[in-house]
Amino acid sequence: VDVWSVGCILYEMWTRKALFPGKNSYDQLKRTIMVLGVPPEPELAWVPAESLTLMRRSCEAGPPGAGVGGAARQLPPSGQGELEKLLSAAEVGPEGLDILRQLCMFDPTRRATIDEALHHRYLHGYSTPEDRAFAKRVAPADVAYDGMFDGIGREGEPAALLQLGRLLRREAERDSPQEPNPQHASARPPNPQPQLAPAERGPGPPAASGAAAPTLLAQPQRS
Question: Could you tell me the pTM of the whole model?
Answer without folding.
Answer: 0.57
